[in-house]
Amino acid sequence: MKIGVLALQGAVREHVQLLEQAGATAVAVKRAEQLRDLDGLVIPGGESTTIGKLMREYQLTEPVLKMHREGKPIFGTCAGLILIAKRVEGLDEPHLGLMDITVKRNAFGRQRESFEAALNIEEIGDNFQAVFIRAPYIEQAGPGVKVLATVDGKIVAAREGTLLGAAFHPELTDDLRFHAYFVKMVQESMVTKVNL
Ligand code: GLN
After folding, report:
1. Do 144 and 100 contact (CB within 8 A), yes or no?
2. Cα(89) to centroid of ligand 1, in Å?
3. Does the annotation mark 139 as catalytic?
4. Which CATH class is domain 2-195?
5. What are phi and psi of 17, to 5 degrees?
6. Residue 47, annotated as binding a ligand
7. Which residues is 165 bridged to in the sheet?
8. What's the predicted TM-score (pTM) here?
9. Residue 183 and residue 40: Cα distance in Å, rounded?
């Protein structure tokens, strides 16, 4: 199993390390042809406007959409969550427009620009130390979206089929559980394909 980490911006190495510790082969990817033989993709945090612009410049948008159509799981963290959302508050056009959610950027305000919170995450486990940095939250989620975690009543982690999103940075702790959950999603997607 090979999982790519989009290496345009953000904590790429940390994602690669955690995916490897969770049992996957992980590679940093920046070119369209590198996406072809992947079984899953992580889109890290950073600045969503910049990552979106670089994705368009490097012609990565269509190949990532193709991965999604082929049933390959995609995991967006922080800016990555904004990139996979179908609706972004204040933007006319979404970036990849995949997950049936509306996200609000920099949503926790100045007082809580960056903070940590111990989360109980459905399907993943309790007491997950989550690092939030100018984080978005999910304002609205469609009926097919499973909410995995909230902070102050705001949705900060969710799954819709092969899409996984977190408003925080699970790669900035040494807790493997979120990445292990994604690796399992990728494994399951591969089994499904074999059975088709
Ligand atoms: N505030 C950033 C954005 O809107 C996301 C922050 C992050 O990825 N840590 O793109």
Report:
1. yes
2. 13
3. no
4. alpha beta
5. -60, -45
6. yes
7. 76, 158
8. 0.96
9. 8
Q: Taking the CA atoms of the chain, what radius of gyration do you get in angstroms?
A: 15
In the structure encoding, which two tokens stand for residue 38, read together?
Answer: 């992947």
**Structure tokens of 195?**
């059975």
Coil, strand or helix at 83: helix
Catalytic residue among 68, 78, 95, 160: 78
Q: Which two tokens stand for residue 79?
A: 């800016």
Distance of CA 141 to the CA centre of its chain: 15
Helix (H, G, I), strand (E, B) or coil at 180: helix
- 68 carries an active-site annotation: no
| Distance, CA of 17 to CA of 26 (rounded, Å) | 8
pLDDT tens-digit series, residues 5-48: 999 999 999 999 999 999 999 999 999 999 999 999 999 999 99
Expressed in angstroms and rounded, the spacing between residue 132 Cα and the centre of ligand 1 is 9
Cα separation of 41 and 76, whole Å?
A: 9
In this structure, are residues 196 and 190 in contact, taking their beta carbons and an 8 Å threshold?
no
Strands 99-104 and 163-166: unpaired
90 three-class SS: coil
113 given a catalytic annotation: no
